[in-house]
Design goal:
Blueprint (H helix, E strand, L loop, with lengths): L7 H18 L14 H20 L13 H17 L7 E4 L3 E4 H24 L7 H11 L3 H6 L15 H8 L13
Antiparallel strand pairs: 1-2
Length: about 190
């Protein structure tokens, strides 16, 4: 997720702001999400729960906690987004490394960008679709992520973090192709209440 002039801090700010808009616009946290068995609240829960442990174990950094996702999903997300932004804005972060047996040693800003910011970006679609909000994602970022993931598809699928690829028309737009690649059905809609 990079452009010649943007930094991991700038990309996080932009992607997190997009997710924050959907978090603030959500009105039904129990609405089903496109990930089987998840609700809108679970989309936020996923991001708030996996990343702090990844950061702590790989870089020895403990993010300040926020409210629980069950009690306050908006507050939980904002606390994490603010903490990650502060970390990326800190000049000292540039010299830190994240160590992980699966990824090796990666400069911390790059690791946050590659693993976390891209996850927030992709889950923006899930939250938007679950809550009936604007689900439009930046097409350049969609294209960049798709181009980076397609060559390592087997590795990604074997990680258990991605569902089976959903076939989409060959002429589908890049967002639809990305959504299908990560295992979401672009045609999925929340069930209509009766």
């Amino acid at each position: 997720m990079s452009t010649p002039t943007s930094t991991p801090a700038e990309r996080h700010r932009e992607v997190a702001d997009g997710f924050t808009r959907r978090v603030q616009g959500a009105t039904d946290w129990d609405a089903p999400a496109p990930v089987a068995g998840w609700t809108a609240r679970d989309v936020v829960r996923h991001l708030v729960e996996w990343f702090p442990g990844f950061l702590s174990s790989g870089a020895g950094i403990d993010l300040p906690g926020g409210p629980s996702v069950d009690a306050d999903p908006v507050g939980a997300w904002r606390a994490q987004a603010d903490a990650v932004q502060a970390l990326l804005d800190d000049p000292a972060t540039a010299g830190l490394v994240l160590r992980n047996p699966h990824t090796g040693d990666v400069p911390l800003p790059e690791a946050i960008d590659r693993f976390y910011v891209s996850d927030v970006f992709m889950h923006t679609w899930d939250l938007a679709r679950a809550t009936g909000q604007d689900e439009t994602l930046d097409p350049a970022t969609c294209a960049e992520l798709l181009a980076g993931m397609e060559p390592i598809e087997e590795l990604l699928r074997s990680s258990g973090q991605y569902g089976a690829r959903v076939d989409v028309p060959a002429d589908a737009d890049v967002q639809t192709r990305l959504v299908g690649f990560i295992g979401r059905d672009p045609r999925w809609r929340p069930p209509v209440a009766t």
